[in-house]
Amino acid sequence: MDTDRDASTFAASLRPGETVQVSSPGTYLAGQGVLAATERRLLFAYDGAAADQQEQFPYPTIRRVVWRSGLLTGALSLRTDEAAIEIGHLDRKTGRELADYVRARLAAPQPDTTLQQSPAVEPAGSVSTLDQLRWLVDLHESGGLTDAEFAAAKARLLDL
């Protein structure tokens, strides 16, 4: 992680007390940039002509996280309340760290916000193993995962 680059890339977007914990260069949609995990959310900042654009994925909206690793790079697949997101070409080591960090944030106890959110909103840390398995099946059936990737991801999820 290049902390100097991350500090300047995300400086205007970070809230008071928010810091970049893990980051990696990668691609999202058709653009290259940097994916960063903070205490509150994932941020993707585009490079080049789109450098003034950023995407954010707050942890409470993330329902599923899948890391697929290749030889040198990998892809982080997220399922949010609104969309399926694929961030590719992440460095293999830091991409895994990003996935693990996001999973840890989702599993952490959430502050009691019952007065602020609708009772219909499911807490981010309550994604069941069955829901994650269903998502893996959906990815596999849609061609997002090869048979080998599906088998490996399923084995990791079920601790086989």
CATH topology of the largest domain: PH-domain like
Strand content: 25-35%
Quickly name the level 1 CATH class of the largest domain: Mainly Beta
Q: H/E series, N to C?
A: HEEEEEEEHHH
Structural class by secondary-structure content: alpha+beta
- Measured on Cα atoms, how large is the radius of gyration? 16 Å
Which segments are poorly predicted (pLDDT under 50) over 5 or more consecutive residues?
A: 113-124
Rough shape?
Answer: globular
Taken together, the total number of domains comes to 2
Per DSSP, the total helix count is 4
Q: What keyword list fits this structure?
A:
30% helix; PH-domain like; 160 residues; alpha+beta
In short:
By secondary structure, the protein is of the alpha+beta class. It has helices spanning 3-10, 92-107, 129-141, 147-157, and strands at residues 20-28, 31-38, 41-46, 54-58, 62-69, 73-80, 84-91. It folds into 2 domains: 3-109, PH-domain like (Roll); 128-160.
Task: Describe what this molecule looks like in 3D.
The chain is an alpha+beta fold. The protein folds into two domains: 3-109, Pleckstrin-homology domain (PH domain)/Phosphotyrosine-binding domain (PTB) (PH-domain like); 128-160. Helix content is 30%, strand content 32%. The protein is built from four helices and seven strands. It has a seven-stranded antiparallel β-sheet, with helices on both faces. Helix 3 runs antiparallel to helix 4 (147-157). It is globular and about 40 Å long. The model is unreliable at 113-124 (pLDDT under 50).
